[in-house]
Specification:
The chain has 279 residues and is of the alpha/beta class. 28% of the residues lie in helices and 22% in strands. The protein is built from seven helices and ten strands. It has helices spanning 7-15, 33-48, 124-127, 138-147, 174-202, 218-222, 226-231, and strands at 23-27, 73-78, 104-107, 130-135, 160-164, 211-216, 235-245, 249-256, 264-270, 274-277. It has a ten-stranded mixed sheet, sandwiched between helices. A hairpin with a 3-residue loop joins strand 9 and strand 10 (274-277). It starts with 6 loop residues before the first helix and ends with a strand.
Length: 279
């Protein structure tokens, strides 16, 4: 089984002088596999973490069968848009390659040498509490973020919102950068509202803030002024894969771009589709 804390959560906590909510812009690797895998691992960690009694089931109707399906985490996955066909209808890819298959992530030293393939199976009860929604446009993203706090209580993503491939919906024109700034602002505001809802439901229980993660391709991230994400409270990290590798593994880095000492954490991508990390 994976660690109860994900790599993104552990690394972010390590560089923070004071405890802070995970509000992260993750710059994607070229084929998105590393960045998507780390984001999905963080989402799974949130979904599999125990909830206080007042938040264990919020009326999904499945709790009597011990398989609660209340939404803990919303994962919005952008479909790929061909930005080069300007003036033409966008070419939207709608098949199994929309989202890279996630690699199995675990903390170094937590895997038993006797573990087999069955040990990599994710807990279905946790997966049931992750709502995956494909989005085709910026309007789809705004619509969801705007209405998510007012959804039926069992569908509100109280633990976190993940926007995967957000940069694929943004053009490089100045209007596109304004759209991105607007989206990040709305995401931050939505997180604030969800925090209030969590506080109301949890009453006097001290709860961590809602996790917010968005992934951007390098080109879109480079066009975004640093003052934007800093003003909105986002940390920036990127996944870097080394060109040198041995026969069994490739060395990679999770680099926090905007930290004062440019903190980085090395992790390993094994050939058997695993990510092994240590903080």
């Amino acid at each position: 089984m994976p660690s109860s804390v994900s790599f993104l959560q552990a690394a972010s906590a390590k560089i923070s002088a004071i405890p802070a909510p995970l509000q992260l812009l993750l710059v994607e690797d070229e084929n998105k596999t590393l960045s998507y895998s780390l984001a999905m691992d963080a989402a799974y960690s949130l979904a599999s973490s125990p909830s206080p009694p007042s938040m264990q089931c919020r009326g999904c109707g499945f709790s009597e069968h011990s398989c609660c399906r209340c939404c803990k985490v919303a994962m919005l996955v952008a479909r790929w848009n061909d930005q080069n066909n300007q003036g033409q209808q966008q070419n939207i890819r709608k098949n199994e390659t929309d989202m890279p298959f996630p690699l199995w992530c675990y903390q170094e030293g937590t895997k038993n040498s006797n573990d087999d393939e069955s040990s990599r199976e994710r807990d279905q009860s946790a997966l049931n509490q992750i709502q995956i929604k494909y989005v085709n446009s910026i309007e789809d993203v705004i619509r969801y973020l705007t209405y998510s706090p007012s959804l039926p209580q069992h569908l509100v993503p109280l633990e976190g919102i993940f926007l995967l491939g957000l940069g694929d919906l943004i053009s490089l024109e100045s209007a596109g950068i304004m759209e991105l700034t607007n989206i990040l602002s709305i995401l931050s505001d939505t997180g604030f509202v969800l925090d209030k809802l969590r506080s109301d439901i949890g009453s006097s229980i001290s709860l961590p803030s809602t996790t917010l993660v968005a992934t951007l391709n390098q080109q879109i991230y480079s066009s975004l002024p640093q003052t934007v994400y800093k003003r909105l409270g986002y940390t920036v990290a990127s996944t870097v894969q080394s060109n040198s590798s041995n026969s069994n593994a490739t060395t990679c880095e999770l680099v926090f771009e905007d930290s004062s000492s440019r903190n980085s954490f090395t992790f390993t991508k094994n050939d058997d589709d695993e990510i092994v990390w240590s903080v």
